Amino acid sequence: MHHPVLLDQVMDRLMVRSGGRYIDATFGEGGHSQEILRRGGIVLGIDLDPDQVKRAINQKILHQFGDSLKLVKGNFAEIDKIAVNNQFFMVDGVIFDLGLSMGQLENSGRGFSYKKTNEVLDMRLDPDQTLTALELIKKTSVEELENIFSRFGEEVNSRKIALSIVRLRKKIACVGDLILAIDQALGYSSQKTYARVFQALRIVVNNELENLKKGLQRALKLVKKGGRIVVISFQSLEDRIVKKFIRDNQLILIDKKPISGLFSYERSAKLRTILV
Ligand SMILES: C[S@@+](CC[C@H](N)C(=O)[O-])C[C@H]1O[C@@H](n2cnc3c(N)ncnc32)[C@H](O)[C@@H]1O
Fold it and tell me: Is 2 close to ligand 1, i.e. is its CB under 6 Å away?
């Protein structure tokens, strides 16, 4: 079982109690859910990636919790519907641990990581969704690609990279081909640029920012007064959405400053706890 980033801090801030009800909106490899269950909580786990849900179902380790864990494949953008369909409301807390799990980066075979040069450029969390990263690259104009890399990757060399991709796109099929196109655009290799380009493509393919906006707003309706919404974000675009959500709804934060943690792939995480 995966030991998630900032596990103890998340448990403290959720104030998990025996018999309390919690939604793990990003079940992943089940690290947060398992700890909530171990402390006697009841969990509705949600994940958009069906492989995450299947693996957990096959894993004996979660069987011990019996009916205390309900697991569904779904999009947290629809957290309200999912909760109602599973008679799981009102709740004491919701946790959003955004981004991808290590397992998805390392073993999904879907081209999420720039390090996996032989993988196809798929990047869909949900295989029922139609658009893959490769289709996006093949179909999109230079201007649109430039816009995607600059808006969702905050990449300064967006134009050069978009031009190089469009010039080479007939030959692009896998992660390594995209890396080559980026290298040709820059004239050197830069892991930071790869990460930004991959992040941008993933955000668009999975509609990540819109999902987050909807997920937070809809979670608010499910949490009891005095309950908590915990969000772990990994990049500034997510951060901005979380901060705007807090401002627009005049919500109170438990910690004055976000709690930081370092995650693998050298990404830094920010934990915020919202009091409902
Ligand atoms: C960082 S991982 C979570 C790790 C988890 N906390 C653990 O302990 O293993 C993020 C998970 O959220 C899932 N995810 C991303 N977007 C989602 C969405 N819109 N709805 C539901 N799950 C989503 C991903 O598939 C991934 O499994």
Answer: yes
Protein residue closest via CA to atom 12 of ligand 1: 26
* Domains of the chain in sequence order: 7-103+208-275 (3.40.50.150), 107-206 (1.10.150.170)
pLDDT tens digits along 221-255: 999 999 999 999 999 999 999 999 999 999 999 99
> Residue 159: what residue type?
R
**Pocket flag, ligand 1, residue 4 (CB < 6 Å):** yes
Per-residue tokens: 250: 């005049």
Is ligand 1 within 6 A of the CB of residue 31?
yes
Ligand 1 touching residue 123 (CB < 6 A): no
Residue 227, token pair as written in the block: 């309950």
Task: Give, for ligand 1, the residue of 3, 8, 27 to mutate: max count of ligand atoms closer than 8 Å to Cβ.
Answer: 27
pLDDT digits (tens, 9 = 90+) for 150-205: 999 999 999 999 999 999 999 999 999 999 999 999 999 999 999 999 999 999 99
Global pTM? Answer: 0.96
Q: Are strands 223-233 and 91-97 parallel, antiparallel or unpaired?
A: parallel
Q: Determine the residue type at 133.
A: A
- Find out whether 48 and 76 touch, Cβ atoms under 8 Å: yes
The response to whether residue 101 sits with its C-beta less than 6 Å from ligand 1 reads yes
33 with 40: CB under 8 angstroms?
no
Amino acid at 87: Q
73: left (phi over 0), alpha (psi -120 to 50) or beta: beta
The DSSP secondary structure of 4-53, one letter per residue, reads -TTHHHHHHHHT--TT-EEEETT-TTSHHHHHHHHTT-EEEEEES-HHHH
Instruction: Say how far apart CA 236 and CA 240 lie, in whole Å.
Output: 6
Cβ(57)–Cβ(45) below 8 Å: no
